[in-house]
Amino acid sequence: MDIRSTAPPYVPDPDQMALWPDVSGNAINGLGETKRRPPSPVYWHEPDTIPHGPLQNWFYGRYTQSPEVAAARARRQEIIDKPLPEVAPAQRVETPQRWVELVKEAGISFGADDVGVARMDPSWVFEGHEQRTWTWAIAIAVQHDYEALKTAPEDPAATEVVNQYGRALKVVKELTGWIRDQGWAAEEKGGPMAGSMVMIPAAIKAGFGELGRHGSMIHRTFGANFRLALVLTDLPLEETGQDVFGADDFCTRCRVCSDACPPQALSSEKQWVRGVQKWYVDFDKCLPFFNENKGCGICIAVCPWSRPGVAETLVKKMARRKARTG
After folding, report:
1. b/e code 213-232 from CB counts within 10 Å (16+ = b)
2. Which pLDDT belongs to residue 67?
3. Closest C-alpha among 188, 189, 174, 185 to residue 107
4. Ramachandran class of 16: left when φ > 0, alpha when ψ lies in -120 to 50, beta otherwise
5. CB–CB of 221/306 below 8 Å?
6. What is the largest CA-CA distance in the chain?
7. How far apart, in Å, are the Cα atoms of 217 and each of 105, 118, 243, 299, 303?
8. Closest Cα partner for 143 from 313, 13, 253, 308?
């Protein structure tokens, strides 16, 4: 792979690497596999259930010393621990289209910056995990404060990421409660713990944008500068539709994130991963630097799409390019 980085060569901490398991995280993720299969848990799961669990514990033990990050995590935990209401008797009858409108209005009122709906796909559930069969996945997005994020991998960026995970969780907890109050079962999914399913494919299908070279989504307004959470439900809904606006095409020409990546974890071309060709972040290269540098975030901070006001301009540029090339 033709990978270059403007950062100095990175050498992982030997104390961390002493915890590295015999199995490659890329192998667990399905790198190079041309057949479709469900994802396998690799990180952000209960540490005693995954080979890289000791590294996950090492990461948390290393950075709980930051008072700001610790406080943000404590606030997030309060949100996680807040109980949800029981499902009320169903009283309201609406069309699926109207329910989508109401869900979007409710999500925005609870603090979401975008809301979309996708039909639930069983292939999003992690291998070995049980997940109730739901019909719909409601995706919500919350935007980072770019001034904080662009300091990555320093403490202000790490704190901002945890804060937005907490805000996203707050939104989906309240939206889940709202749906239950309407008489429909629902459950929430938020990060950073992966839980029973992957969220990015659901968010792409719900219309939040395209996968970028850095392995994160690119939204037509927020760029890569946002976090995700989900609500799963059987409330009668309809899909809001995917949004393809040229970000993927842009990434084939742009090298900003890959050149800025200290461990050189971003490939210059798409890879086969569990039967799909897509942009892929080399887990074995990324994770040590991520763990040693406060969850990193450099790639999404330097992404041209993430800078305030730039995404809208790039969407127009890509539309003009498509019109010229057909």
Report:
1. bbbbbbbbbbbbbbbbbbbb
2. 87
3. 174
4. alpha
5. no
6. 62
7. 23, 16, 12, 12, 11
8. 308
Read off φ and ψ for residue 226, nearest 5 degrees. Answer: -160, 170
Alpha-carbon gap, residue 17 to 272, rounded angstroms: 27
Distances (CA, A) of 299 to 8, 152, 216, 294, 322: 15, 9, 9, 13, 26
Pairing relation of β-strands 276-278 and 210-211?
unpaired
How far lies 142's CA from each of 34, 56, 247, in Å? 33, 25, 19
Contacts of 307 (CB under 8 A, 6+ apart): 146, 223
User: Cα–Cα distance between 94 and 99 in angstroms, integer?
Assistant: 6
Taking only the tens place, the pLDDT of each residue in 144-181 is 999 999 999 999 999 999 999 999 999 999 999 999 99
Whether a cis peptide bond, with omega within 30° of 0, leads into 192 is yes
Evaluated on CA atoms 79, 148, 57, 55, the torsion sign reads positive
The b-or-e profile of 142-166 (16+ CB within 10 A means b, else e) is bbbebebbbbbbebbbbbbbbbbbb
Determine the 3-state secondary structure of 77 from DSSP.
helix
| CA gap 269, 213 in Å, rounded | 8
**For the CA atoms of the chain, what is the radius of gyration?**
20
- Quickly tell me which residue has 């969407």 as its tokens: 315
Burial letters for 184-195: b for 16+ Cβ neighbours within 10 Å, e otherwise? bebbbbbbeebb
**Cβ neighbourhood burial of 87 (10 Å; 0-12, 13-18, 19+):** middle
Compute how many other C-beta atoms are within 10 angstroms of the C-beta atom of residue 267.
18
pTM (predicted TM-score): 0.94
